[in-house]
Design a protein that fits this description.
This protein is α+β, with helices and mostly antiparallel strands. The chain has 2 domains: 34 residues; 56 residues, SH3 type barrels (Roll), CATH 2.30.30. The chain has 2 helices and 5 strands. The chain has a 5-stranded antiparallel beta sheet with strand order 4-3-2-1-5, covered by helices on one side. The longest helix is centred in the middle third of the chain and has 34 residues. The relative contact order is 0.12.
């Protein structure tokens, strides 16, 4: 009765190797996205701020990182002296300056 039943030879399927290329490619893609969305703009802002800080000069009207407006009366390598009111001067670090204002901004703000 063996002629009705064919002998089936079941071969074990070959073990497939996990795809190691896809996770590596995804990690590289994520790094590139982070670079262009986070790292590069931050480096650009830091470079612009360094340029702003190195260009500070006596007579510039500035805003500090704390929001205080004033006029630079003296500069040294690490610090600037900012006059924030008549006969009121504050000495702060150069890197605490966040922006240089156009000339006359302080007088215009006093009128408001």
């Amino acid at each position: 009765m063996n002629f009705f039943i064919s002998s089936a030879h079941a071969a074990a399927p070959a073990a497939q190797q996990p795809d190691t290329g896809f996770p590596l490619i995804m990690m590289i893609v994520m790094f590139v996205i982070f670079y262009f969305l986070l790292i590069r703009p931050q480096q650009k802002r830091a470079k612009e701020h360094q340029k702003l800080v190195s260009a500070l000069a006596k007579g510039d009207e500035v805003v500090t990182s704390g929001g205080i407006m004033g006029k630079i009366t003296n500069t040294t390598e690490q610090y600037v002296t900012v006059e924030i009111a008549a006969n009121v001067q504050v000495r702060i670090q150069r890197h605490a300056i966040s922006a240089i204002l156009p000339k006359g901004s302080i007088k215009a703000a006093e009128k408001d």
